Amino acid sequence: MGALSLLVLFSATVVPLLTIVYSERVTIREEVRALTILEDSVLEFVVDGVPGLKSINQYEISSDIVKDGIVNTCCTWVGSNGREYEHCLLAAN
């Protein structure tokens, strides 16, 4: 009976923690994908001189001109954990 109690207690504490850890791992993968898309968009601006505005799946890219030849490009998305994220990069042409 004691072993069963320990198994239930272990399952009740560890399984929810593993679920949260897995969700955060998925969100980190999404963040890496977003940063890759953002970096590609900034590199397109540096090469072409035209700030890109596009959406890829749940990622939205927006660009604002800060000064002459300097653009702030941002990527926003909602992660699988339900939180909103935004990363921005500055680029000069």
Could you please describe the fold and organization of this structure?
- The chain has one helix at residues 2-48, and strands at 54-56, 59-67, 70-78, 84-92.
- With 93 residues, it is an alpha+beta fold.
- The protein has one domain (2-92).
- It has a 4-stranded antiparallel β-sheet, covered by helices on one side.
Could you provide a short overview of the structure?
The protein is α+β, with helices and mostly antiparallel strands. The protein has one helix at about 1-50, and strands spanning about 55, 60-65, 70-80, 85-90.
Mean of residue pLDDT values: 87
Subunit arrangement of the protein: single chain
Supply the helix-strand structural class: alpha+beta
Task: Write the element-wise H/E pattern from the N-terminal end onward.
Answer: HEEEE
Structure annotation, total helices? 1
Helix content: 40-55%
Characterize the overall form: rod-shaped
- Between the first and last Cα atoms, what is the distance in angstroms? 71 Å
Low-confidence spans: none
The biggest sheet, with number of strands, parallel, antiparallel or mixed sense and barrel status, is: 4 strands, antiparallel
Strand order of the largest sheet: 1-2-3-4
Q: How large is the radius of gyration?
A: 21 Å
What share of the residues does DSSP label as strand, in percent?
A: 25-35%
Number of strands: 4
Please give the domain count: 1
